[in-house]
Design brief:
The structure is a single chain. This protein is α+β, with helices and mostly antiparallel strands and 152 residues long. The chain is built from five helices and four strands. It has a four-stranded mixed β-sheet. A hairpin with a 2-residue loop joins β2 and β3. The longest helix is centred in the C-terminal third of the chain and has 29 residues. The chain is elongated. The termini are far apart.
């Protein structure tokens, strides 16, 4: 029956042309599906990737059908299972968390760059900074060698 599924754009065209006779909302363990009747043909609504589209909330189905022009439909709750209706997507949750973290880091980084650009102090030439750090590095190495003591 997956090959007989109908996508959103085809359903919208059929509704616009007045070909749709009825719409049935069917509850199942994964949520709510839509079955459309055109003449003697009965087809489920497909998602973008071709599988049968399932909605997690009945209100969302009602808004979807009303939005494409189907104001009346039947509801079959016999197979509906509220326990399994909410589909979680841990992969998407993790991706969304990473996206928020990246956006927060980007905001922080840009603010730090702006602070540096707005700094009115005169800049220090690279050679001078390199010389200062070379001197500090030499002092630290001297301390480390002194702490280790003479080699036997």
């Amino acid at each position: 029956m997956a090959d007989a599924a109908i996508n959103h754009s085809a359903l919208a065209k059929l509704v616009e042309s007045g070909t749709v006779c009825a719409a049935h909302v069917v509850g199942c363990s994964g949520g709510w599906g839509i079955i459309v009747k055109c003449g003697r043909t009965v087809r489920p609504l497909a998602a973008q990737r071709g599988k049968v589209r399932l909605f997690s909330k009945l209100e969302t189905v009602a808004a979807y059908l009303k939005g494409i022009g189907i104001a009346r439909f039947d509801v079959d709750v016999l197979g509906y299972d509220a326990e399994h209706a909410r589909r979680t997507r841990p992969d998407r949750a993790a991706a969304l968390k990473r996206a928020h973290e990246a956006a927060a880091y980007d905001k922080w980084f840009r603010s730090q760059v702006q602070v540096a650009l707005d700094d009115s102090r005169p800049s220090i030439p690279h050679e001078e900074v390199s010389a200062r750090w070379a001197k500090k590095r030499a002092q630290l190495l001297k301390k480390v060698k002194a702490a280790r003591g003479p080699k036997a």
